[in-house]
Amino acid sequence: MINHLAPVQNPILSSGSPVLVSGASFAGLATAFWLDRLGYQVTIVEVASGLRRGGTPVDIEGETIGILERMGMFDAVRAKALPPRAFKFKDADDHTLGGFCIDAGAEEPARARFEIHRDDLLDILVSGIHGSVEILFGRSMKQLEDEPDGVTVTLDDGTRRTFAMVFGCDGNRSNTRKLVFGDEENFTYFMGGYVYLKVVPVTGILPANLSEVFSVPGRTAMLNGYDDRTDIGLAFRTEGEIDYDYRDRAQQRAMIHDHFDGLGWKVPTALKHVGTDDNFYFDRINQIRMPSWSKGRVVLVGDAGYCVSPVAGMGGSMAIIGAGRIAEALKRHGADYAAAFQEYHGKLHAFVEEVQERTANDGMATLFPADDAEMTERDRKLRAGELDP
């Protein structure tokens, strides 16, 4: 937990003040980049032994493009961008019900949206801080003490260091959020389902540059095809949360089989890959909704403060947007970190709430319809061309 030992008033932060970033994924790396450019001495702590590689590609669109341009990284992202992908909704007989960009060669004008493999984006972001930011892998925060001159952080190896500010960029199950704000369940909005994601080095399941979705009420299978791999997504709806051990991968695989065994379409092919190893993602579909993203000298960026859920497909973009916004606020307010944190929340929270609401309602009903009524309405919108990509 965080200990508020004394109030801090009118702090003076020199340009070389030490700051700590918890988490070395997109939010952490982007935040560290901007803090370094603002003149802070930046340290990143990451509980994993190295960068967390693998996983599904990342969407880059909207404000994210402008931020990457200011970071000098957009050309590198564009060079690694994947070809546009068509998106098709399928029935059990593999007939196409509808979708987006189905015509061969169809492409968005001027490529307003890009997709890039996760590892490529990680490498680009790391290159921006190489040699100028300290990264401590295999370390995590154990305790934070908010003191008059800074936040004293105790790491899990017993090391104690004091920082002017701490930035929690450590994801949906943020350790920073737990230490500073308390029980994560107070801020978790359960969206009524669970999702399994796995990347397999197999290309024969569907053509490259194509996504396909097959649903029955309460269960959805989604496949993303690329030149060298296929993403497998399996999601099922529930009325309430399931009591399971997040460390027990065999139990999670069994739950997937319980919900998807016996389904048609390409589901049997996808299930052949479920039991191959433990290298997959499984979790509840949820959002993080908080009334404030900061307390004292600690502030949250990205999924740690405002996860919009995997359904939105905007986790990477929201992380980079959040990092850019907190940097702008710090640059504007200088030593007054409290004012910077307040501006960061004040200017970003409406956009976050809009994305979260759209995802929790339209997004879930479109990709993971819960019942016959939602299935019928989704299929009607597909036939009428009323769904936006």
List the helices and strands and how they pair.
Blueprint: E1 2-4, E2 18-22, H1 26-37, E3 41-46, E4 58-61, H2 63-70, H3 74-79, E5 86-90, E6 96-100, E7 113-116, H4 118-127, E8 134-137, E9 141-147, E10 150-155, E11 160-163, E12 165-168, H5 175-181, E13 188-200, E14 210-216, E15 219-225, E16 230-237, H6 249-260, H7 267-271, E17 281-288, E18 294-295, E19 298-300, H8 303-306, H9 315-333, H10 337-367, H11 372-384
Parallel strand pairs: 1-9, 2-3, 2-12, 3-8, 5-14, 12-19
Antiparallel strand pairs: 4-7, 5-6, 9-10, 10-11, 13-16, 13-17, 14-15, 15-16, 18-19
Helix pairs in contact: 1-4, 1-9, 2-9, 9-10
Characterization of the model:
The protein has 389 residues and is of the alpha/beta class. Helices cover 33% and strands 27% of the residues. The protein has helices at 26-37, 63-70, 74-79, 118-127, 175-181, 249-260, 267-271, 303-306, 315-333, 337-367, 372-384; strands at residues 2-4, 18-22, 41-46, 58-61, 86-90, 96-100, 113-116, 134-137, 141-147, 150-155, 160-163, 165-168, 188-200, 210-216, 219-225, 230-237, 281-288, 294-295, 298-300. Helix 1 (26-37) runs parallel beside helix 9 and helix 2 packs across helix 9 (315-333). The model is unreliable at 1-14 and 104-109 (pLDDT under 50).
